[in-house]
Predict the structure.
Amino acid sequence: MNRPDVRCACFPGKLGLVIVSVAFALLSAGKANAQSSFGGNAQHTAIYSTPAQNLNAIHWTTSVDLNNNGGFAHYGAPVLTPANTIIVPVKTTTGFKINAFNGGSGAAIYSLTPDYISPSSQWTVPYQPVLATNSVETRLYYPGAGGTIYYVNGVDSASHGAPVQQVFYTSLAN
């Protein structure tokens, strides 16, 4: 059995939490392969090499919306590191935060609070962190304010590297 695709979904209220909870239960057994994008790859095939856990139990859950106003929202998708750390974007009352959890136990490892400002919209737009993995390390990238991005190294550890801010169009001073 292949792991299901954990996609950004448009669900009001607690249904989004239930979907993410089921996804965590499926992904938390054993060491997971890195899943750094929607659907597992650029084609969104959702075909994974690691088998899923039994679907008859919820092993742990976490909220993806701390400011649920009952409206429709596009939530960001959790991403997984090769060491089975689950990175979860969370909507807060003032914006977003990123929580990292041990995939097997659900134990919190750390949180990051970005300075990202969501654009005006009738919907809650997705906030999506991504992972970049090479032979040496796994790096977490996440959106920041004003067209910037941040990254951290050592994403599987509570003592991860300090967030580094980068800018696309000009300099940080501008």
Q: What stands out?
A: Residues 15-27 form the longest helix (13 residues). The CA atoms of residues 80 and 86 lie 5 Å apart. The beta strands are 79-80, 85-91, 96-102, 108-112, 130-133, 138-143, 148-153, 164-167.
